[in-house]
Amino acid sequence: MLRIFPPFYLYLFVVLVLVLLKLERVDPLGFVASATYWRNLWHGRDDWITGHTWSLSVEEQFYLIWPFALCLLPRRLLM
Q1: Minimal CA–CA distance to 29: which of 9, 50, 6, 58?
Q2: How far apart, in whole angstroms, are the C-alpha atoms of residue 35 and residue 32?
Q3: How far, in Å, CA of 78 to CA of 13, rounded?
Q4: pTM beyond cutoff 0.85
């Protein structure tokens, strides 16, 4: 988390600056989906500047869901 979050949010900040300077166009909902890690579930207009963040969304969802999935498994399957 400490390795990927700072450069990722720096990247999103730079993208936001480019959008505000009207040097780049990004779908606002796609930007929010990228920043909040549900880009892989969003099926709107795909743009090249944030479209690749779907893979990070999958990874973060895995890390959020996996501990709960392990808690639900019977103890004999975990050994």
Answers
A1: 50
A2: 5
A3: 41
A4: no
